[in-house]
Amino acid sequence: MLTGAGLMYVMRKSLAFAGSFFLLGTMIVFFGVHTVAGERGMLARPQLERKIMLAEEQLALLEKHQTFLSHRIGLMHKGGVDADILAETARAELGLYAPNDVIVSIDLSDLKF
Asked: Mean pLDDT over residues 43-57, rounded?
């Protein structure tokens, strides 16, 4: 038969075991829920893949726009300035157009290269 001290020891040991079991179970449930339904969990994966695809498309457009602008800058920096680019830039910046010129304005921010 257990005395008072022995009974307290057994109760403390069983409470420690139950507490550690509860803590471990809580951690497993916490990480399990976040793995499945968290911000980056399995259920959010299709939405994340769609965001990645949109970002890659935007990156490709920006790279094409950069190539276009690099080409235009290259035409202005090579030994001498390309006469057509110089005339186009001067007319656009200074607003110097001949009376018979047709002006077509293109917003490059909406343009998809």
From this structure: 93
Q: How far apart are CA 40 and CA 38, in angstroms?
A: 5
Q: Which domain holds residue 75?
A: 54-113
Three-class DSSP category at 109: coil
**Is position 102 within any domain?**
yes
pTM > 0.85:
no
Residue 10, in any domain of the structure = no
**Structural domain includes residue 9:** no
Q: Mention every residue, 6+ apart, whose C-beta is less than 8 A from residue 40.
A: 48
73/71 Cα distance (integer angstroms): 5
The reported pLDDT for the residue numbered 28 is 94
Encoding tokens for residue 30? 């916490």
Domains contained in the chain, number: 1
Closest Cα partner for 113 from 59, 75, 73, 74?
Answer: 59
